[in-house]
Amino acid sequence: MAEICCLCGATATAHFALAPRADTVALCPICHAGATGPLQDGPHWQCLNDAIWAPEPATQVLAFRLLSGLGAHWAQELLDIAYLEEDTRAWAEAGLASPGDVVHRDSNGAVLAQGDTVHLIKDLVVKGAGFTAKRGTAVRNISLVPDNRGQIEGRVEGQRIVILTEFVKKSA
């Protein structure tokens, strides 16, 4: 008998460990990708409305962490009304980054750091500067926007610009 995803009920293909404990849950490919990589709001994540109320603490922990990572208004509202036992909430929060820790990731999910070099993966029209930053352009010595994981800053054609992380790829 095939396992089902603890979050959405689809056929599970992978197991995911919920640090810092050794407990694991079965996940479908979509839920596994969200649990291990960058997370974006979408219709699939409405399954978290039910998962946060699941009787299994491991499912509640993963739902809590995913809702925390979504940043969508509906997800925050659900977190505000969700009840988790004290030890379950502590477990869920232990796996989250600190509120001050903003992780910047490129279009492939690679973690970006201050001073990295990235390449543009798409032509970008630079508003207010009157030029287009061409695909393949190297942006050296980037700066991370501290309160927005989706933005970095760098110099292109002598201009300091803000670039969305979804349009860059980290250089090797």
Layout of strands and helices, then pairs:
Layout: E1 14-17, E2 24-27, H1 29-36, H2 48-51, H3 57-70, H4 73-81, H5 86-94, E3 118-120, E4 124-126, E5 131-133, E6 138-139, E7 143-144, E8 151-156, E9 159-164, E10 168-170
Antiparallel strand pairs: 1-2, 3-6, 3-10, 4-5, 7-8, 8-9
Helix pairs in contact: 3-4, 3-5
Please characterize this protein's 3D structure.
The structure is a single chain. The protein has 172 residues and is an alpha+beta fold. It folds into 2 domains: 14-94, no CATH class; 118-170, SH3 type barrels, CATH 2.30.30. The chain has 5 helices and 10 strands. It has helices at residues 29-36, 48-51, 57-70, 73-81, 86-94; strands at residues 14-17, 24-27, 118-120, 124-126, 131-133, 138-139, 143-144, 151-156, 159-164, 168-170. It has a 3-stranded antiparallel sheet, with no helix packed on it. β8 (151-156) and β9 (159-164) form a beta hairpin. α3 (57-70) packs across α5 (86-94). The chain is elongated.
Features:
single chain, 172 residues, alpha+beta, 3-stranded antiparallel beta sheet, 21% strand
